[in-house]
Structures are given as C-alpha cells and as structure tokens.
Amino acid sequence: MNGTISLRLGFRRPYPVHRVFDFLSARCVRGVEELVDGLYRRTVRLPNGIGIVELAAADDHFVCRAHLQDERDIGALEERCRWFLDLDCDPFAIEEVLKRDPALRRSVESLRGLRVVRTLDEPELALRAVLGQQVSVAAAVTAAGRVVDLCGIPLAEPSGSLTRLFPSVADLAAADLSGLKMPAARRTAFGRLAEALAAGEIVLDGGTDPDGTYEQLLTLPGIGPWTASYICMRALGDPDAFLAGDLGARRGAAMLGLPETARALEAHSERWRPWRAYGLQYLWAALTP
Q: Which of 66, 133, 176, 263 gives 20 to 30 Å between its CA and that of 226?
C-alpha cells in the first residue's frame, strides 16, 4: 500500500457502538474482514485501487485509519465509511416516531440511537444477502467464505488475517460456481444476480431509487421480498425498508408483545413510517437484550 491516512468521523449521539460491532462481528468473512478488541478491519475496493480500512470507536466519533493504493480515494473512503456506519442519521427524529408506538417505547428509551449497519460494498452486500436466504447468520458467513476461497482476489501485501478482496461481480459472473455447496436454486440466484450487477442491469448505490430497485430485484430468479428488502435496507440505505417475514423480526416482535405473523407485523409497522428499518433494529435487538 502506498499511503496511510487517518480520519475523524463524527456522529450525533446517542450511538450504541457495541450493537454495531456485535452485528459486524457475527458476519465477518475470513480473509476479508475481522473484528478484534474493538477494532474492525477489512479489505475494500475503491475507485482508484484497493485498501485496508480500520475503524475504532471513540466518545463521539470513529477513528478511521486506512492503507490505500491511491490517495485519491480518501474522499470516497470517508463517504463510504460514514454511509456504512450510518453516521449522518438523526436519532432524535427517528426516536420521536418510534416512541409513539407503546410496544416500542420502552425499547427505544432503553437502547437509544440504534443505527442500520449498511455496507462498504453494495454489490457484495447484495450477493451475501442471497447467500443468507433461509439459513443462519453463521451458515451465511460460511457460504461467503467459500465464495472468497473460490474467487477472492489475493492481496499482494496481506495484512495479518486480511488476505483477499471479496470477488468482483465481473469475476463472479464469469466464474464456474458449480463447486459452491448450496442448494441449486440459491446458486442460480447468486449467479444471475452477479450477472445482472456486472452488466449494469441493476445498479446499487446511495442514489438509486429503492422502490424501483426492489421491483427489479424481484424479477430475478430466486429473489423474493426478504432478499430484496434486505438489499434495499443495507445497500441502498432505504430507511423505510422492512422485513416482515424475517424469522428474527417475528420472534423479536413476539417478545415485545407485537403481532408475530408476517402479515399482521407488516400492518403494524405502518405506524413506524418513514423509519421502519430502524424499528426492525429494535425487533432484532429484543433477541439479545
């Protein structure tokens, strides 16, 4: 790497850093990312080269240290990190809406400022969402590790346990994926999404219209409402995305005395608009108080 930079990424408190890091720790893919002793590290693909980013939390900011191939990527990296950690949201505006629901009020007051963890790489997030269909988080991480083993790009200069980049969509679209251990339908969905992303049929970035992208995603084989909503929430930053059929969300809802069927929970979530993605975080948080 040619240069090392340090950035101060401020945020508006409250910000429960431990919840964000717990979420990330459970999803780290070997060779690509790690979280050790409060330091999140991962490899990243940037407009002008690759990098290794390190993120640690302080009182009212994150410290970002990065090792970059090309220092022209400093601005892009800062923007991506702020997006990834949801640093620019207004927790008080979200709180005001969610606390109107008596079933959520206690959770919101006891765990203030929950954020939606997004991504440093939108195509990677979308592909990993497919790998996470109808399996546990641990199983999804194992599947992503197999993808990295098969097609990941080795770093010329590994950094500790960080040895690879997650494969590009172009590499995955051209790869023979038959050796990946997963149901055939999921493998087909994974490959077709990689092809659509590589061809520009589907574009994922912060400026993309979530509603239109949601409908586009549903036209692909093997992608249903759960996967499309998850991608819109974490890759596109849709603050109103909601996963009513998610098993964890339904279990959390039951613990909070909310409806636990997908249809009834979807109807109940209408009162959380336009912040349903943040309401979802409280349903998940109920599972690990």
A: 176
Locus of tokens 């090392």: 4
Mean local confidence (pLDDT), 144-149:
96
Q: Answer whether 163's CB lies under 8 Å from 104's CB.
A: no
For residues 251 and 286, what is the distance between their CA atoms, to the nearest angstrom? 8
- pLDDT value of position 236: 97
Classified as helix, coil or strand, 81 is: helix
In the chain, the DSSP E strands lie at: 3-10, 33-36, 39-46, 49-57, 61-68, 153-159, 162-165
Give the right CATH number for 122-234 from 1.20.120.550, 1.10.340.30, 3.10.450.50, 2.70.40.10: 1.10.340.30
Which fold is adopted by the domain 3-89? TATA-Binding Protein (3.30.310)
pLDDT reported for residue 1: 62
Banded pLDDT at 142 (limits 50, 70, 90): very high
**Distance (Å, whole) CA 201 – CA 116:** 26
Instruction: Tell me the average pLDDT across 166-174.
Output: 97
The pLDDT assigned to 35 comes to 97
Helix (H/G/I), strand (E/B), else coil: 112: coil
Assess contact for 146 and 131: CB atoms under 8 A: no
> Can you list the pairs that 65-68 forms with residues at least 24 positions away whose Cβ atoms lie under 8 Å?
65/4, 65/5, 65/6, 65/7, 66/4, 66/5, 66/6, 66/7, 67/1, 67/3, 67/4, 67/159, 68/1, 68/2, 68/3, 68/4, 68/5
Residue located via tokens 């590499």? 171
- Domain locations along the chain: 3-89, 122-234, 247-285
pLDDT (mean) for 274-279: 98
